[in-house]
Structures are given as structure tokens and as C-alpha cells.
Amino acid sequence: MELYIDVRSGAPIYDQIYTQIKTQIISGALAENEPLPSIRGLAKELRISAITTKRAYDELEKDGFLYTVAGKGCFVAPKNVELLREENLRQIEAHMARIRALAAACGLGREELWEMLSMTEEDGI
Length: 125
Hints:
By secondary structure, the protein is mainly alpha-helical. Helices cover 60% and strands 6% of the residues. It has helices at 13-27, 39-46, 50-62, 81-106, 110-122; strands at residues 66-69, 73-76. A two-stranded antiparallel sheet has the order 1-2. A hairpin with a 3-residue loop joins β1 and β2. The two termini are 30 Å apart.
């Protein structure tokens, strides 16, 4: 598992860890029941506080992406199809909001957006 911390991004470090691990779980880069690095080990590797790493792991567990086994560590939770569907819907809604903003900036209306969507379907995109 590779994680990158961008101290200039303005995003909290725990959120960067959370987002990157969640993305790897959703994409399948991290398999179900795969062990994650220990909290202290990851903190040492990233040169951050163990408290920051713990917060990211706690959020991932709360959201159903990880589970903890006492004395063994944290593991990737089995994929919850409904949870993944909700995450994908959230991402689609975010993209749609961006599309609406771009369309408004270009003066595009609903008809033109539908036409563009139809063209992407015809192109197999």
C-alpha cells in the first residue's frame, strides 16, 4: 500500500490517508481481509503522529471499510455492495454538480447537456 502526504494541499493529513485507503479499497487495489500496516508502523513510515494515523483508521472503520481484530491489527472489510453503491452515487452527484457549473459558465442548457450525454453513449464512453 502506497500513500502520499501533500503538506501543501491544505487537506488534513488524516483525511488524505482516509481518502487514499478508501480509494484503494473501492478500486480493489486492497483486497478483502488484507492486513493494513500497523498504526505505529504507518505513522513512522509517513513521519506523522500515530494519533493522526489512528484517526484515519478509526474513520475508515466507522464507515465500514476496515475492521479491527484485537492483538492482530486492522484489515480491509469485506465489500459491502450497498456501501460501494452509495459511495459511487455520491461521486456521481459531485461530478454532476461540476458539470452543471461548467454548463452554466458556457451557457449550455438542459437539451445540449442531454445531447452531449447521448453522444457519449453512442461512442461507447
